[in-house]
Design brief:
The structure holds 3 protein chains of 3 kinds.
Chain A lengths: L1 H7 L7 E12 L2 E12 L3 E5 L6 H7 L10 E9 L2 E2 L7 H7 E4 L10 H12 L4 H15 L3 H4 L12 H13 L5 E5 L7 H14 L4 E5 L3 H7 L2 E6 L2 E7 H6 L4 H7 L5
Parallel strand pairs in A: 3-8, 3-9, 6-7, 7-8
Antiparallel strand pairs in A: 1-2, 1-4, 4-5, 9-10
Helix pairs in contact in A: 4-5, 4-7, 5-7, 7-8
Chain B lengths: L18 H39 L4 E10 L2 H4 L7 H4 L4 H18 L9 H5 L5 H12 L7 E7 L2 H7 L5 H6 L5 H13 L2 E5 L2 H4 L14 H32 L4 H13 L4 H15 L7 H26 L2 H9 L4 H30 L2 H5 L24 H9 L5 H31 L4
Antiparallel strand pairs in B: 1-2, 1-3
Chain C lengths: L2 H26 L11 H36 L11 H21 L4 H6 L5 H8 L10 H39 L6 H41 L2 H6 L3 E2 L7 E2 L2 H32 L2 H16 L2 H24 L8 H26 L2 H9 L4 H30 L2 H6 L17 H9 L8 H34 L2
Antiparallel strand pairs in C: 1-2
Helix pairs in contact in C: 1-2, 1-6, 2-6, 2-7, 3-6, 7-17, 9-12, 9-14, 10-12, 11-12, 12-14, 13-14, 14-17, 16-17
Classes of the chains: A alpha/beta, B mainly alpha, C mainly alpha.
Chain lengths: ~260, ~450, ~475
């Protein structure tokens, strides 16, 4: 069945959105990411898989410079967004993060109303003029996150009162309300039950029509279900990167094969 | 579906800052500056506070004295000629005073000092009123001195002392009825002659308090002893009671209303204004139980009640920090719960308990308000006796002595009060350093 | 026999009991401790505990109750004529004469027989005066008789107490020794005793609160018997007069208290909060290592030091550079002086509480905001602080309670004049200042001018207790939200 779904997905656009070259990440003396080069395509879901502690989340956080907030973290190499080096001195991470949004492992809605959660990004970036326009932005973000029907009558209720799956979709709505070009998702379904997970996965498939989506997951099945490209990380190295179907059916590297068949990880 | 989200203006380059981002970064910098300013405000307040105390108080540790040779005529001091102490006690300070004044004027004459406008009153007022008492005490302690001449250094009047320390100037002396410019000129001349000098003032830490008229003689001896007695009582009472309470609450207390009541009580006692404890001490310990006023025992009891919450909270934190695996290990080889706690958990929690106890004691040492209410403001010149009887003798306490001195008219007492605070702060620094060292030395990470 | 000696003898008996119990336990099994249920030390401990605990408990209760019983019996001897309002004065005299006689006997001025056979002939006052016991008036025969009765009753009581306590201690040891058998569970008994002691210790906190509330309630009732409560709570003038006819309205005192606390909070809350934010969100490790302890030192400085700082530095400074040039007053002590200095005192209090609260906000919320491209200050202002708001409100309430109850700073910095005024450079006074001034010096515990202090104390206690309970409740609910 998986195979059938993989067949259906035709990569529509092979334009490269983010290009990482020889990226090294150090935490103090710890060399966490070694020589990783990867090209992330626009309007594609790219999955990072690998055993825990392999560096996939760390690498993801390099892509919108969230690692800047960690003391003692150092990034070397070159990562470009549309050809511009995001670690260039002139780049303000605030502007970068408006274009490369992020959804986290645990749903983290702000202790505000549902409406204010979604409106937060557009407000700080000054993307809308007036209340009417904000209402439209909030509505369309919630619709795109497949949450609108459930919350349209209680937009002023606190976001923390929603169920786990709803909270995570709220966080996705919050992220897409700022109109990012890339959406980074760090194990977005790991804290959710199977039904909520299925909803999120469906949503991810929707999202790729507009954004480049990068998703970190510890579940190989999930990677196989949602992604077109897969990168396998092991001990800080990028072992293999390619079409999802190819990685899961004919892995080139023995380590990838061991992981996929469940011998390591 | 209207697609408002995609309507973003032409994609800007990451390498240039747009106007909005620049504005937001400026707001960021401003916010950060406010934070830094707040921290700096705190630090500046600390520096100004310490500078003010040190600037005003360091003078208390030096004192100006005049060294004089005083004749002690037997005819005046011991009319019976038997050197009987009881008879000699009849010669009061009024007899000794003129002897010292005479010695001063002899010293002036010998050294050929001429000061214009120096009246007789200026001369007798030059030295501290305490000097006659000093001399009398010395003679009574050693009656054989009578009939000979003794050399002794005498305290000068507080204003003259202030002149030597720069607190009193010629200009201020002209307006001051307690000191004349002639006396200041005399002080200059005596200093040149080498018999007036300003040196370290040991008496400030050892001597008892002195009356309103003689700030130059006032010391902290009784207050330090009183504070020490109170701290001893606080330590003896609050440490066992506090630790016992904490052990009960942390290890034995069942989950019920009674336990909740105790817990709520403790957290509230920690926040009750200190003056309320003073009212408690006055009503219960003095009016009801009939304990004496101004006594270290009452102060100690009141401060014990105030210190208990601190020690209980610190001990509970220390007990909580000992991992349950230690308890399980002891219980697993058949120790009883009490044995597990007293043999294993408590020793491991000891550094934390000691740190908490020292910090609690340091708070108690600086506490003033409750002591005012239990009569520790009284003027006490006699040292309390040795414990345990001494716990019931009238006494003063360091912070109360500071308060006492602030209530006196003579500006020289400002210097004394600030000096007393320096002594108090030195004790606090020592105690807190000890607490930090214990924590550093024994700190364990589980 | 004086109480400390009895105490020491009981302790000695307990020590002897320990040794005897241990030896007896060993003797019972012929030195083979494997046959004992508990270690030999426990048999010793149970003997020591049975000796000391009941005896000391009885002694403590006796010491508390005896004065009350004796006094009430002696009071009965005072003739009706002298009773009424002056009863307490007469009793003071009686006590003083009795103390004087004790002193006279102990210093050898009088023999014990002389003291009991004394008649009221006017020489007593002189004799006692020589010993430093000053008596206000001559000693009437009734007072002397009462004083003698007081001495006899006290002596009898003390003797009886010594006998009862020592007999109890001995009986305890004997009973403990008699009970010792090989299979006797000494450890369980000792441990039950220890648990009892721990429980006893933990009730002291409750006893303290009860003592505070009861003592103040008791005296406040006396006060309201002499002064109408509505004049106290709603009176706008405070002018105590020890010759009677005082106005004792609390409003001007409350106004001063609240005004000063308000200024203190206006100073300390923004500074403390911003300092906490800077320390936890911006400062580098090195800066924090220096600045944090520096701010904490402010918290360790006794309030008397702040009081002196207000009196000799801040007060004159404000007077010379603000109040006088602006024509607002010529007083060094003022609401502004006390408020500013108290604000400085509260900075570390607010900042350390806020620090805890800000750190309790989960990092995931910060990440969420930063991940959307918010700057740090936007994250703090729009996510962290609103999330921490309940906790911060709790912290401010705790700080307010501190400010209201603070004494030394206002005693030295605020002044003594009870006024309802808006000018912050005017000297005003507070509830705590008046408690101190009404209860220090010579006080007459029958006069409303003294008793009012207890009513003020109770008001203060209720006010701060209310704030504390509210604040602790808010903070606890806040913490539970993120746990």
């Amino acid at each position: 069945m998986n195979d059938m779904r993989l067949e259906e997905r035709i990569v529509q656009n092979d334009k490269i959105k983010i290009d990482a070259q020889d990226v090294q990440v150090f935490y103090g003396d710890n060399h966490a990411i070694k020589d990783v080069s990867v090209a992330i395509e626009d309007k594609t879901v790219t999955a990072f898989i690998g055993p825990s502690g392999c560096g996939k989340s760390t690498f993801l956080r390099c892509l919108n410079r969230m690692n800047d907030t960690v003391a003692g973290c150092r990034v070397e190499g070159r990562i470009t967004l549309d050809g511009e080096d995001i670690y260039d001195k002139r780049v303000d991470p605030v502007q970068l993060r408006a274009r490369v949004g992020m959804v986290f492992q645990k749903p983290n809605p702000f202790p505000k109303s549902i409406y204010d959660n979604v409106a937060y990004g557009p407000k700080i970036h000054g993307l809308v003029r007036g209340k009417a326009e904000m209402d439209e932005v909030v509505e369309s973000a919630l619709k795109r996150a497949a949450l609108w029907k459930e919350v349209k009558d209680r937009l002023q209720a606190p976001g923390t009162g929603l169920s786990g799956g709803q909270q995570q979709r709220l966080c996705i709505a919050r992220a897409i309300a700022t109109a990012p070009e890339v959406l980074l998702m760090d194990e977005p379904a790991s804290a959710l039950d199977p039904i909520a997970t299925a909803q999120i996965e469906e949503l991810i498939d929707e999202l790729r029509t507009r954004f480049a989506v990068v998703i970190v997951t510890h579940s190989m099945q999930q990677a196989a279900r949602v992604s077109q490209k897969t990168a396998f990380f092991h001990l800080g190295n990028l072992v293999e990167y390619g079409e999802t179907g190819q990685i899961f059916t004919t892995p080139r590297d023995p380590r990838t094969e061991s992981y996929i068949t469940g011998r390591i990880g | 579906m209207t697609d408002v989200i995609a309507e973003r203006p032409a994609k800007p380059s990451l390498l240039t800052l747009d106007a909005r981002t620049r504005r937001r970064n400026a707001a960021e910098a401003r916010f950060r500056a406010y934070g830094l300013a707040a921290v700096m405000a705190g630090i500046v307040a600390l520096v100004v506070l310490l500078a003010s105390v040190l600037g005003n108080g360091l003078g208390a540790f030096t004192q100006t004295r005049v060294t004089l040779q005083v004749e002690l005529p037997a005819a005046k001091l011991d009319k019976s000629g038997t050197r009987d102490i009881e008879v000699m006690k009849k010669a009061t300070t009024l007899t000794y005073g003129p002897l010292i004044t005479a010695a001063l004027s002899a010293a002036i004459k010998d050294r050929g000092i001429v000061v214009e406008g120096l009246s007789k009153k200026d001369l007798s007022g030059f030295l501290s009123k305490e000097s006659a008492a000093q001399l009398r005490d010395r003679v009574l302690a050693d009656p054989r001195l009578v009939g000979a001449a003794v050399t002794q250094s005498f305290l000068v009047n507080g204003r003259i002392d202030g002149y030597e320390k720069g607190r009193v100037t010629m200009q201020s002396a002209e307006k001051d009825s307690n000191v004349s410019p002639a006396q200041l000129h005399l002080a200059d001349a005596l200093e040149t002659a080498g018999i007036l000098h300003t040196g370290f003032n040991r008496d400030f830490v050892t001597a008892p308090d002195a009356s309103d008229q003689r700030p130059e003689a006032a010391g902290l001896g009784v207050a330090i002893l009183g504070s020490a007695y109170m701290m001893l009582i606080v330590l003896i009472l609050s440490l066992p009671i506090g630790v016992a309470t904490a052990i009960y609450l942390e290890e034995f207390a069942p989950q019920n209303r009674w336990t909740d009541l105790i817990e709520v009580n403790i957290s509230n006692l920690a926040a009750v204004p200190s003056i309320v404890f003073g009212i408690l001490g006055l009503a219960i310990f003095i009016n009801f139980a009939g304990l004496p006023q101004s006594a270290p025992i009452v102060g100690g009891l009141v401060l014990t009640l105030m210190t208990l919450p601190t020690i209980i909270i610190a001990t509970r934190a220390a007990l909580k920090a000992v991992p349950p695996s230690i308890r399980d290990a002891a219980l697993g080889i058949g120790a009883s719960k009490i044995q597990a706690i007293f043999h294993h958990v408590l020793p491991l929690a000891m550094p934390g308990i000691m740190t908490g106890a020292i910090i609690g004691l340091a708070q108690a040492l600086g506490e003033t308000a409750p002591l005012l209410l239990i009569g520790m403001v009284a003027f006490v010149r006699d040292y309390p006796g040795a414990p345990p009887e001494g716990f019931f003798d009238p006494s003063s306490a360091l912070p109360v002595q500071v308060f006492n001195w602030t209530q006196r008219a003579d500006p020289a007492f400002v210097e004394r009060a600030s000096g007393a605070i320096i002594v108090l702060l030195v004790f606090l620094v020592i105690m807190n350093t000890a607490a930090i060292l214990i924590r550093r030395r024994f700190e364990r990470r589980w | 026999m004086p109480a400390p000696w009895i105490f020491l003898i009981v302790l000695a008996l307990a020590a002897a009991g320990y040794l005897a119990g241990r030896l007896r336990a060993l003797a019972v099994v012929g030195g083979d401790i494997r046959r004992l249920h508990s270690l030999p030390g426990y048999y010793g401990w149970q003997a020591a505990m049975l000796a000391a605990l009941p005896a000391l408990l009885v002694m403590g209760l006796w010491l508390l109750i005896q004065p009350v019983v004796v006094e009430s019996r002696v009071e009965g001897m005072i003739p009706e004529a002298a009773q009424g309002a002056s009863l307490s004065l007469v009793m003071t005299d009686v006590r003083r004469v009795a103390e004087g006689l004790d002193l006279a006997v102990s210093t050898g001025v009088m023999s014990a027989a002389e003291a009991t056979g004394l008649s009221a002939d006017g020489t007593i006052r002189a004799t006692l005066g020589k010993l430093g016991v000053a008596l206000g008036s001559g000693v009437t025969p009734e007072v002397l008789a009462a004083a003698k009765a007081l001495r006899t009753a006290e002596a009898t009581g003390r003797g009886a107490m010594a006998a009862v306590v020592l007999v109890l201690a001995l009986a305890g040891v004997a009973y403990a020794l008699w009970r010792i058998r090989a299979e006797y569970r000494a450890r369980n008994v000792v441990e039950a005793g220890v648990r009892g002691l721990l429980l006893l210790a933990s009730t002291i906190a409750i006893l303290t609160t009860a003592g505070i509330v009861l003592s103040m309630l008791f005296e406040t009732r006396h006060f309201f018997a002499q002064y109408p409560w509505w004049k106290f709570f709603f009176g706008a003038t405070w002018s105590p007069n020890f010759r009677g006819g005082s106005d004792l309205g609390i409003l001007p005192l409350l106004w001063g208290t609240l005004y000063i606390s308000f200024i203190a909070l206006v100073v300390s809350v923004p500074i403390g909060l911003f300092a906490a934010v800077y320390m936890s969100e911006y400062a580098g490790r090195k800066f924090r290592m220096v600045a944090k302890p520096a701010i904490e030192i402010l918290a360790g400085i006794p309030t008397i030091v702040y009081g002196l700082f207000a009196l000799i530095t801040v007060g004159p400074l404000l007077r010379d550079y603000f109040a006088q040039p602006l024509g607002l007053g010529a007083s060094g002590s003022s609401v502004m002086t006390a408020g500013l200095v108290m604000g400085v005192m509260l900075i570390p209090f607010v900042s350390s509480l806020s620090d805890d609260i800000i750190n309790a906000v989960p990092q995931s919320l910060r990440d969420g905001s930063l991940g959307l491209g918010a700057t740090r200050s936007e994250t703090i202002r729009q996510v962290v602080l609103p999330a921490a708001l309940p906790g911060i409100v709790g912290a401010v309430l705790l700080a307010a309670s501190r400010a209201i109850g603070e004494t030394m700073i206002v005693v030295l910095g605020a002044g003594a004049a009870a006024k309802l005024d808006l000018n912050p450079f005017e000297a005003m006074t507070t509830v705590t200042v008046k408690i101190v001034s009404q209860l220090t010096g010579d006080t007459d515990f029958a006069a409303p001018e003294t008793l009012v202090a207890f009513a003020l104390g109770l008001t203060l206690f209720v006010l701060t207790l209310g704030l504390n309970v509210l604040a602790l409740w808010i903070v606890r609910r806040y913490r539970e939200q993120y746990e």
